[in-house]
Every structure is written in structure tokens, then in C-alpha cells.
């Protein structure tokens, strides 16, 4: 550190030397600029994507009601192109909710095992492993789905293999470590006295978990699930590789479908920037943006209800 | 069934859930490594990819991944550090601070494809650069910034209060004590966080599809002029990274040996995540020992 060799008199705030005060101001300005960059990044993403996302409705005259309520998606038709995105909106919600239904009980069960049943082993071995798995890139999960799960489903359930079910399973496996690791943090942060109080009253471990630990940690556990859902809702490539990408509404779990992200991924590259077909994709992105704001608000609501933190 | 039996049953269920999940995840990751490992020859790792024929490697993709990672960290670390210092040291408990917190939360929870589309709008179309390495790195900076700010803020906050107070009591200015006392003490935490964030950036694909593109020009690795269009160092060229490559060979590729290339690439990605994680833990504990003077 070069600063160590500066004489003390020149580092003091109230010295006659003005450089220290000057440096103080300059340092504070620098970090404030960084902080403002964060605000401007978040604001400009919101503004740019909102403006661009509304283009299709305001400039190209696509009906917003049709967009949200029709399943008729055919933007390449020359005579009468239709832009009904309901199948994709439905597909996104379907895979997200199904994946959360699979991952939530398993993830929370795993977190309970790590914190309540085998804390020493859980903390030393399982938690680092789970955290490592959070970092595995989503394309890898998608590729595993494509090369292992899809052929497996094809031979067991029949059909193509590319299906809602495949998408759900890939997403569930992908968000499982996220849910487990956040839920474990939540359970760990509960005051230890809760459990001891319950044991002292003669409750078994299961009664303590079910009647004391789970209700006390409920807001955090829900936060873990919502964060997992947010990740699943926004995931693009992993789902795109296994879900089959068709425009129609799926009628069974084994039918192929599409989600908002998969349609954007597929078509963004080869539609002309500024065309109606392209602008509608930005409207799909606007829905993704709105959903991620919704998830944030929901998590805020949950954390305001947290009793122990 | 009495409460004792119920307790035993529940314990059994939890054991099997934990065992099942561990087995499943280990199985998947192990399977990918097992499939990909035989493909990891020096030739595969260094030769350029081919668009039609079999036998292409992942040389340029691997290089692009690391290059984009370095560029991203070059932007993210100073910005994240600045933001973290502001949040930990200067931010008062007011409206502005809570706005910044909300913005960090918003950025952190945006789907990466949305960040990619923002990048397409701003760094590709608005600037007129087209698909470029630098556009991809800037999009990844937006993607990574909230993580980095949090890491730096947490690391600075976990420095014992007494250290800061002692340095202020000696008459140092706030900025000078941040620079000479707080930052060195927080360094292990920041470094660990930065390495973990690098792992995340390395595997990111969705936000790069429309910013860095899904193609790579033929690179001449003997050409080190950063302004030449075939030079690997040129930051204004399209650059397909390894994670994007896995996706593109599987969905858009025409090569006959898709499976082999993708297997190998996936194994490299998993290995990279492993290495980044272990490195972060190892360096973190090493530095911690050195700074706290434990043998």
C-alpha cells in the first residue's frame, strides 16, 4: 500500500493539508457514481424493454386482448398474421408450477435433513455439494435432458419424448439445489431455543419439525420456493432444448409445448428488427419482465412477514 | 401408530429424500463427466470447431469463454467494489439507499434472456456494433453486477467494527481507512465471491445468444493485433462461448458428431464450475489464515 508511506499529518482530516479532504470527497464521489450506475442500469432495462414491448400494440396495431387471450400464433402468414400468445403464457406457467410442485417438497425435505436430522454431516458434506450444484450451468441441465431424459421418455411413455413432462423434470432438477440451499439457510437462522423448548416439552423430532420448525420458518421456505419459481420461469435454453416448441396448447403432460422464453430464443435471431413479428417477441419479453417484478414484490411481502431473521 | 413410530417413519422419509437427491444429482453430473471425459483430448480442446464435418474441436469457443470472462470481470469488479463500498460505508438509511437495494434486487432476479434482449437493444442495435464480444461482456456485466455488489458489501460489513473505529480514532479520513484498513481485511471475502461469480459467468448462455452471437469467425491465433478482424483479441467480433456452443450444436447444428462435441463441452463446463468452486474455497481459507495469522 503506497498510502502507508504518507506522513500522518497529511492524512488527517483536520490538517492544514487539503489533499486528505480532497481525496475523501473524490473517493466518496467515485463510489456514489458506481451506486448510481446500478440504479440507471435497472431503470434503463425497465424503460427500454417497456417501450419496446409496447411497440407491437401501439405502432403495429396488434390487439392486446388477442395477444393475451388467443392461442392462434401465426406471425408468418402473409395475408392475416395472428399473434395470440396464450399457449406460451400458459406453457410458462404450467412448467413453472409443476416444477415447483416437484422441487419444493424434495428441496425442503433435503433442507430439513441437512439442518434438523444430520446437522454435522449435512453442513460438512451436503451443503457444499448443493451449493456447487446451484452453479452448474443451465445449458448442462438442458443437455442432460436432451440426451438422457428425452430418449428415456420416448421409450417409456411413447411419443417424441419432447414434452411438458421433460421440461418440468429438467426445471425441477435445476431449481432443486436453489430451493434446498435457501431453505437450509432459513432453517439454520431460526433461534435454537425454539427446538430446545419443544424437545423439553417432550415432543419427538418429527413433532418439533412439523409443529414448531416448519411454521416458524414458513415465510423463508416460501421465499425459497418463489425464488426457485422465478428461476424456472425465466429459464430459456434448458427448457427450449427439451420441450418441443410447438404453437398449440398441450393437452397432456406428454404433449410438446412452448414457453415465452423458448419462443423468444427460437425466433429472435431470424426475424427482422423492427418488424411486427419481431416486436411481438419484445412484448413476450415484457411479460417476463412484469413477472419478475411480481416475484420480487411477492418475496418482499413474504420477508415482511418473517418472524425470525 | 404412536408418536414414536411416526417420528421414526419421518426420519426414514427424510433420509431417503436426502439420499435420493444426492444420488440423482451425483448420478447426472457423474454421467456427464463419464461421457465427456474420453473426448477431452488436447486436439479437441485446441482445434477450431467445424460447421459441417465431424471432428471439430472447441478451441475458439474455449478461448472466447475465458476472454469474455476476463472482460466482464474487468468491468464488474471495479463497479461492484464501488457499489459495495457505497452500500456498506456511505449509504444512510434513507429513500435513496432503499431505491438502490430495490434496483439490485430487480437486476438480480431478471431472467438472463431478458438481460440478453436488453443487450441486443442497447449494445448491438443502438451502438451499431452488431454481435460483438464487448456487447456480450457488457450484458454479462449487467447480469453479474448485483452479485458482485452484494459480495463486496457483505465482505466489508463482516470486517470487525473495532478495526474501522481504531483507524478512525487515529485520525484517518473515512476514505483512507476504507482503502488501507477495510479493503485489505475484506479482501479474502471479495476474492472468494468474485471467483464464484466467475463460475456463474462462465456457464451463462441465454444472455449471450443475442449479444455475442452464435458464430465465431475463423481465428488466426498468430495474429495478436487487437484491431484485426481475425485476431482472437479483437473485441468487436462475434464470439460464441462454450455454453452457447452446447446449445447451438444441439439445436441449430449440422455436424454429424453433435453428441460427442456436446458431451465434451458439457464435461469442460462442469469441470470449470468444479475448479472455480474449489479454487474459491481454497484461496478463501488460505488468505483468511494468512491475514488472521493462524498457522
TrEMBL record, chain A:
Q: ABC transmembrane type-1 domain: from which residue to which, for each copy?
A: 89-299
Q: Kindly list the GO molecular function terms attached to this UniProt entry.
A: phosphate transmembrane transporter activity
A GO cellular-component term linked to this record: plasma membrane
Name the membrane topology term: Multi-pass membrane protein
Give a short account of what the protein does: Part of the binding-protein-dependent transport system for phosphate; probably responsible for the translocation of the substrate across the membrane.
- NCBIfam families tied to this protein: phosphate_pstC
Please identify the protein, giving its name as recorded. Answer: Phosphate transport system permease protein
UniProtKB/TrEMBL annotation, chain B:
What GO biological process term is on the record, naming one? Answer: phosphate ion transmembrane transport
User: Where do the TM regions start and end?
Assistant: 12-34, 66-88, 100-123, 129-149, 181-202, 260-280
Q: What SUPFAM superfamilies does the entry give?
A: MetI-like (SSF161098)
Where in the cell? Cell membrane
Per the record, GO CC terms? plasma membrane
| The entry's keywords | Cell membrane, Membrane, Transmembrane, Transmembrane helix, Transport
Outline the extent of the ABC transmembrane type-1 domain. 62-280
- Keyword Transmembrane recorded: yes
Q: CDD domains given for it?
A: TM_PBP2
Q: Which GO terms describe its molecular function?
A: phosphate transmembrane transporter activity
PANTHER family named among the record's database cross-references: ABC TRANSPORTER PERMEASE PROTEIN YQGI-RELATED, PHOSPHATE TRANSPORT SYSTEM PERMEASE PROTEIN PSTA-RELATED
Describe the family membership recorded for this protein in Swiss-Prot or TrEMBL: Belongs to the binding-protein-dependent transport system permease family. CysTW subfamily.
This protein is called what?
Phosphate transport system permease protein PstA
Taxonomy of origin reads: Bacteria, Bacillati, Bacillota, Bacilli, Bacillales
